[in-house]
Amino acid sequence: MKVLHVCTGRARKVTIQGRSVLTAIGKQPRSGPVAVQPLGLAGDEQADLTVHGGLSKAVYAYPSEHLPFWQTVRAQAKAALWDEPITPGLMGENLLLQGLREQDLWIGDRLLLPDCVLVVSEPRRPCFKFAAVMGFAQAAQLMTQSGFCGAYLAVLVPGTVQAGEPIRLEAGPRDVNLRDLFRARSKPG
Predict the structure, then answer these.
(1) Per-residue pLDDT reduced to its tens digit, 92-117
(2) What does the alpha-carbon distance between residue 132 and residue 88 come to, in Å, rounded to a whole number?
(3) Whole-number Å distance between alpha carbons of 50 and 127
(4) pLDDT tens track for 115-153
(5) What's the Cα-to-Cα distance from 25 to each of 13, 69, 117, 129, 188, rounded to whole Å?
(6) Measured between alpha carbons, how far is 69 from 161 in angstroms, rounded to an integer?
(7) What CATH fold (topology level) applies to the domain 2-7+23-186?
(8) Average pLDDT for the chain
(9) Which residue in 177, 159, 48 sits closest to 107, CA to CA?
(10) What share of the chain is helix, strand, coil (3-state, %, to 5)?
């Protein structure tokens, strides 16, 4: 298990479905150590603090194992005209991880990195901005169906993080699995 990429982004205005919105999705990879603070990574912003950011959603981690799925469905949705690769940060993730998928994570699990400790707090819920960056309207629905949501992390011990660092998983209580919580929250009311 390791960190493949560390990504940050600034909020910017874009036009989605004919309206101007603020978004920080589509982050860019950073090199070298990046400071991890209680409210997230240095140089990173969230556009809508009602659904992203804060102490419990300071860092968003996504499994690299899902990227081939998104590349395939994105190409199919765009009638095979979309050959642009899914690059690190496009999903809005701060950390692109290898070896840690949703079914492996439980609320309260700790990710022990060489210089910081992060805690799994909740799954990400997709929105219209995710569909826009992916380039097809069904992207949010496919995230819900697949359960490929990634994990929000709280910062337990601030420090730094950088690409290539190993991650050690320390099990928390085994009460609520990340994927199960995502699916429960995604069911129609």
Answers:
(1) 999 999 999 999 999 999 999 999 99
(2) 17
(3) 13
(4) 999 999 999 998 888 988 888 889 999 999 999 999 999
(5) 11, 19, 24, 7, 26
(6) 27
(7) M1 Pyruvate Kinase; Domain 3 (2.40.33)
(8) 92
(9) 177
(10) 20, 30, 45
Q: What is the C-alpha to C-alpha distance for residues 89 and 59, in angstroms, rounded to an integer?
A: 12
Instruction: List the structure tokens of 19.
Output: 């309206």
- C-alpha separations of 48 from 32, 115, 127, 129, 179 in Å: 27, 28, 11, 11, 23
**Amino acid, single-letter form, for residue 124:** R
Instruction: Please tell me whether the overall predicted TM-score, pTM, comes out greater than 0.85 for this model.
Output: yes
* Phi, psi for residue 83 in degrees, rounded to 5: -110, 10
State mean pLDDT over 22-43: 96
pLDDT value at 79 more than 70: no
Residue type, 83: D
Contacts of 59 by beta carbon, 8 Å cutoff, 6+ apart: 36, 40, 41, 94, 95, 118, 152, 153, 154, 155
